[in-house]
Amino acid sequence: MTRRRSATGLLALAALLGVGAALVYAAQATLSSYVVTLLALMFLNIALAVSLTVTNGFAGLFSLGHPAFMTIGGYIAAVLTYPPARKDFMLPDLPAVLLTNQIPLLPALLAGGIIAAILAFLVGLPVLRLKGHYLAVATLGLIVIVQGLATNWSGLTRGGSGLNGIPRLTDIWWCFGFAALAIYVALRLKFSSLGRAMMATRENAMAAELSGVSTYRVRMLAFVIGAFFAAVAGGLMVHLITVVTPKTYSVVLAFNLIAMVVIGGSGSVFGAVLAAIALTGISEAARPLEESLNLYGLSQVIVALALILVLFFRPNGIMGGAEPRLLRRLF
């Protein structure tokens, strides 16, 4: 019975993935390049919101560090895939092995994700032993530190001028595949014993400890997983917009991602997906209005108002931490 249910779940999951791939193919064939790029960015926002749900929603960690990890992953992926002919004068301080070599996108993304995960582990060693909102302050400081290093380490990053001319190696299929992977990993984790341990830690750390859960370890794992996916998303985004600067991923992005998680419902993967789609669409729809009325920042005001309204009328978010019945059956 269990094997039959597992096989049925896999078939249903493959069918959902096939439908999504068909919709992406249709969009790429019929829509303008601008809209296709916007859809690719929406998929990346979905992956980012889902990965932050693992850190903030499952384990209850108030992390603001996604932009810092995205910056790390973005710069590493950009440097590793940058054409050697341009590295000599654009990035003169690179080690010789990096100056003369250009590696494919996938290993470059993995390298950025692994380095960001290691950094998250090192940051988490002292911070995750503390209580309260120390993690939020530490990760906010991490954004400032990473941006400062990227600005001043000009021989490796071109400083405040940023790195342009990056090969456009990312397309909508990369972004769709990465979003699907992030959703799959998050859902598998949520309905596993490890995911239940994370959520038990979020609800009551002392009770979880008394039940035999190592709350420090599960928090660390959630923090590292979120950092890895954020860094890979940063690398994909850099190769989509073909430029990266120290301010590309800022505190504003951290606020938007937190808003997606809270509006969708803390701990709900499906809610994070819905919120990412909605807020990405709202931000893009507000852009022409900002330019015509010279009201720059209007989209951020709209996002903030949406967050306030959701917190007032539905404090637990759209999904309230739950998943649709279909997803619960599949996973």
Descriptive account of the structure:
It is a single chain. By secondary structure, the chain is mostly helical. It folds into 2 domains: 1-30; 38-250, no CATH class. The chain is built from 16 helices and 2 strands. Strands 1-2 form a two-stranded antiparallel sheet. Helix 2 (33-58) runs antiparallel to helix 12 (215-241) and helix 2 crosses helix 14. The protein is globular, with a radius of gyration of 20 Å. The model has no long low-confidence stretch (mean pLDDT 88).
Secondary-structure blueprint:
Layout: H1 2-30, H2 33-58, H3 66-81, H4 84-90, H5 96-99, H6 105-127, H7 134-152, H8 154-157, E1 163-164, H9 172-190, H10 193-203, H11 205-210, H12 215-241, E2 243-244, H13 251-264, H14 269-293, H15 298-313, H16 325-330
Antiparallel strand pairs: 1-2
Helix pairs in contact: 1-9, 2-9, 2-12, 2-13, 2-14, 3-6, 3-7, 3-12, 6-12, 10-12, 13-14, 13-15, 14-15
Tally of separate domains: 2
Helix content: over 70%
Rg estimate, integer Å? 20 Å
Count of individual beta strands: 2
Q: Number of helical runs?
A: 16
Strand content: under 5%
**How many angstroms does the end-to-end distance come to?**
15 Å
Oligomer: single chain
Mean pLDDT: 88
The low-confidence parts are none
Strand order in space, largest sheet: 1-2
Question: What labels describe this entry?
Answer:
single chain, 331 residues, mainly alpha, two-stranded antiparallel sheet, 16 helices, 1% strand, membrane, transmembrane
Q: What is the structure about, briefly put?
A:
The protein is built from 16 helices and two strands. With 331 residues, the chain is mainly alpha-helical. It is a multi-pass membrane protein.
